[in-house]
């Protein structure tokens, strides 16, 4: 279970004030000369870094904080900001937090814990050139098709990408392979291109929306497949906008003859619980991409358990692929990363069932 640390709650309660103090510390006397847009951006960035730091401490995951510092460093390097910016930021965090030590809510020992996680995070950063590159990826099926699909969408050619997929269906390519070897790697590559400043937010949004559209063209086929008497109910935690991953998982499981009940992004806890009560699924799946949403996944699981719902609960998404011990801390029954591993896991959890056609 994820512990609720009172000292972290204390810092969270004072987050806005701490963020403002960090900005003042970083920009010194220039702070009142800052353009409003620049100031708001600095506030957003600082809040984002702090939320990730506080969550790493709360879930006690050095692994995730290391991944975060690497990611933030890569992002800043590719955005042409000075590579010292992130370390400047965390130095300012330590200066500001020193003034917060009051020996009652926030002690020297807590301060040292923060110092330790930050210094370990920084000691493992690799140069951005190596860490965010896609070079050296092994050959995969549909590799050429993936290249062409990417070319179409980066050239804003949605119908070219759709025609390519329709042709693959006509050529009897397994729909599951489209998820495994086309849509999934394409979305990951899109993230890398955005992070390394090779495409902008609009290009990323366009390509993601186009992939959603192209996936929807497959639904007639996917939903008409025969189904076993099993239901997989899937949701994102509240605040979480990344729903493509769990949507793909649902489509994939429909191809494996499961029924899925997909709730999508940003689901309020009570509505998830109500849907579970009404639908009575065989497996509940909770997806979470942003690290700072992990406590919400844990909280939702606690509420489901308290409601005496004896259904296996899986958690998964980006951070769970980085820290292999994380699922356990959320109180879930398990996790899995790849489509095949997810299918195998739910088959094991529910005893398997042979499709009778
Ligand atoms: C598309 C996208 C978005 C879209 C999402 C649209 C949508 N409809 O889903 C939008 C524009 C909303 C978005 C917003 C943001 N994004 Co975004 N996004 C992406 C991107 C490019 C692709 C996501 C995706 O489709 N992945 C493909 C799927 C298949 O992968 P997946 O989700 O991991 O799912 C797999 C497994 O994890 C698993 N799985 C998933 N869920 C579950 C659940 C269970 C129970 C199980 C068992 C398994 C499982 O199954 C899948 C198959 O293997 C990723 C890049 C990436 N590497 O993922 C960035 C990425 C996740 N985003 C990122 C960021 C920073 C953001 C923003 C903060 C940007 C901003 N400044 O606003 C916001 C945050 C929004 C929020 N509050 O949630 C970063 C996160 C980095 C980090 N360290 O935190 C990434 C990694 C980009 C990058 N490389 O920098 N994003």
Automatic annotation (TrEMBL):
Keywords: Cobalt, Metal-binding. InterPro entries: Cbl-bd_cap (IPR003759), Cobalamin-bd (IPR006158), Cobalamin-bd_sf (IPR036724), Met_Synthase/Corrinoid (IPR050554), Meth_synthase_dom (IPR036594). Residues 229-356 form the B12-binding domain. It comes from the Bacteria. This is Cobalamin-dependent protein.
């Amino acid at each position: 279970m994820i512990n609720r640390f009172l000292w972290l709650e204390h810092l969270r309660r004072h987050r806005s004030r701490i963020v403002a103090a960090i900005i003042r510390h970083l920009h010194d006397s220039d702070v009142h000369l800052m353009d409003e847009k620049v100031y708001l951006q600095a506030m957003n960035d600082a809040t984002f870094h702090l939320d990730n730091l506080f969550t790493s401490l709360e879930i006690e995951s050095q692994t995730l904080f290391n991944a975060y510092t690497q990611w933030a460093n890569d992002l800043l390097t590719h955005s042409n900001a000075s590579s010292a910016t992130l370390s400047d930021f965390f130095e300012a965090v330590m200066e500001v937090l020193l003034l917060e030590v009051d020996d009652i809510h926030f002690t020297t020992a807590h301060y040292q814990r923060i110092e330790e996680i930050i210094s370990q995070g920084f000691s493992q950063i690799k140069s951005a050139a190596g860490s965010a590159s896609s070079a050296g990826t092994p050959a995969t099926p549909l590799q050429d098709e993936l290249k062409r699909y990417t070319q179409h969408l980066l050239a804003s050619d949605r119908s070219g990408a759709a025609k390519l997929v329709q042709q693959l269906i006509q050529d009897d390519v397994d729909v599951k392979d489209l998820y495994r070897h086309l849509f999934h790697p394409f979305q990951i590559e899109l993230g890398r291109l955005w992070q390394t400043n090779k495409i902008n937010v609009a290009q990323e949004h366009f390509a993601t929306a186009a992939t959603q559209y192209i996936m929807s063209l497959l639904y007639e086929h996917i939903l008409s497949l025969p189904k076993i008497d099993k239901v997989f109910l899937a949701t994102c935690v509240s605040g979480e906008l990344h729903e493509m991953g769990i949507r793909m998982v649902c489509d994939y499981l429909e191809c494996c003859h499961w029924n899925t009940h997909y709730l999508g992004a940003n689901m309020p806890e009570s509505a998830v619980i109500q849907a579970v009560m009404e639908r009575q699924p065989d497996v509940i799946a909770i997806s979470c991409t942003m690290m700072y949403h992990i406590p919400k996944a844990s909280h939702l699981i606690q509420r489901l358990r308290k409601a005496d719902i004896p259904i296996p609960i899986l958690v998964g998404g980006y951070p769970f692929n980085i820290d292999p011990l994380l699922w356990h801390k959320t109180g879930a029954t398990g996790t899995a990363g790849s489509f095949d591993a997810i299918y195998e896991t739910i088959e094991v959890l529910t005893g398997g069932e042979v499709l009778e056609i």
